[in-house]
Specification:
By secondary structure, the protein is mainly alpha-helical. Helices cover about 35% and strands about 5% of the residues. A two-stranded antiparallel ribbon has the order 1-2. Strand 1 and strand 2 form a beta hairpin. Helix 3 crosses helix 4. The protein is elongated. The protein starts with a strand and ends with a helix. The mean pLDDT is about 75.
């Protein structure tokens, strides 16, 4: 059965032997397909992101903002993986929810959390 099928090296599809010319490793469809023009490479653009401070020297309070200041985009904030909701496998999302719940419990009941954590760490042989 396996002798009747082959994988094309160009399109990586598994096709019947009839779609190949003799011992060719590329199927007829890939051999007869028109050649695509190579894409022009994208131009390299350097973007600077500047955070805006209220105390930073700048234009006077009454003056209109300059076009350069209006074009400045705020710095991108790094988002912790545990703050990304609705992404990943079910087990990963369940684990993230558990970690967030433990963080909230630690904030709301710090004494109880510290006591329970200490007990569990000592049961594991940790100090």
């Amino acid at each position: 059965m396996a002798e009747k099928w082959r994988r094309c090296l160009k399109c990586r599809s598994i096709k019947p032997v009839e779609d190949f010319d003799g011992d060719e490793e590329t199927c007829r469809a890939c051999l007869t397909a028109p050649v695509r023009k190579p894409r022009a490479s994208a131009s390299t653009v350097t973007t600077r992101r500047v955070s805006v401070d209220a105390d930073a020297p700048g234009p006077a309070a009454g003056s209109a903002p300059s076009t350069a200041a209006a074009a400045v985009t705020p710095a991108v904030r790094n988002i912790a993986p545990r703050d990304v909701r609705g992404r990943g496998d079910h087990e990963v999302r369940a684990r993230r929810a558990r970690v967030r719940a433990l963080d909230r419990l630690a904030e709301e009941y710090p004494e109880d959390f510290a006591r329970i954590l200490g007990e569990e760490r000592s049961s594991e042989g940790l100090t």
